[in-house]
Amino acid sequence: VETTPRLAQWRIDTLSSCTYRKSDPFKIGPWKWYLTVERNKQLFVKLFPEVSSLSREQPPIASFIIKLVPSSPNRKTLIHPGICDKQLKNDDFVWAVDTLFTGRFIIDVEFLDLKIAPPTGGEPSSIWSGSYIEKNSAFTALTSLSRMLSEAIHTDITINANGGCTVAHRAILAARSPVFRSMFSHNLKEKELSTVDISDMSFEACQAFLNYIYGNFKADEFLAHRLALLHAADKYDISDLKEACHESLLEDIDTKNVLVRLQTAHLYQLPRLKSSCMRYMVNFGKIYDIRDDFNAFLQTADRELIAEIFQEVLAVW
């Protein structure tokens, strides 16, 4: 198969009846492709990407024009109506042609566009546009950053957590947190000893904290340590992590956690979480389902918070 960056041509010799042929692989964009042709009662032409981790994780979304060009100038070229933004896997494009060619002919495929959908959702972007290059560059950089942590590449700071220690990079921590930047910029013990003590975090929560900072987000790990991550985000002034924890804590309020969430919202000044907890307990009447726990909560809760709860109760009544 002869190719240019967007064009592929496969030259076919005469096909006898009941014949099947498959092209050699050819590369258009980041994928390897195949063409097949089968002659039975009709002529069937098939185009598909090679099965690989790339085509499974990021199947191409293709727009193309495919033609059957006979070698004889007296024969008419057959042109498919065209494919626009079609995701292609193994059997997603088959062209059944009623006319049976005799003699040599060329299968001509001109790719008008190839797109990839982001792994996290959103609009697909063309591999031939600057946006794809930008996203691919950002993805590669983030992957490299994650490897710096997981493989301890040129680390220069030790993090002591409750239950273990790990290593990291001053520059990365300083870029993500003004608190860390201040630690490493002044003659504090963290700078002199190349050590940061985070004794108020478990080792597992600290690992989750560093993974987030380095872009190695793990959903299960994040959910398991949301409260600890919220505390760290507040302590080290990482606003995006604090907001991510805030959003997540809003999503699964129930009778088992609502009082803890309410206290958390008050402590870290999270107004939407506080409002959601209040509505859940008061407007939806769940306060009656946790009467004993609520009575115990009133013995230790901040007076200002208690006053807000009763104001909410009076407003509903």
Automatic annotation (TrEMBL):
One of the Pfam families matching this protein, by short name: BTB
Domain BTB: 155-214
Pathway noted in the entry: Protein modification; protein ubiquitination
SMART domains referenced in this protein's UniProt entry, alphabetically: BTB (SM00225)
Gene3D superfamilies: Potassium Channel Kv1.1, Chain A
UniProt-listed PANTHER family: OS08G0495500 PROTEIN, OS08G0495500 PROTEIN-RELATED
Name the UniProt record assigns to this protein: BTB/POZ domain-containing protein
Naturally occurring in which organism (per UniProt): Pandanus utilis
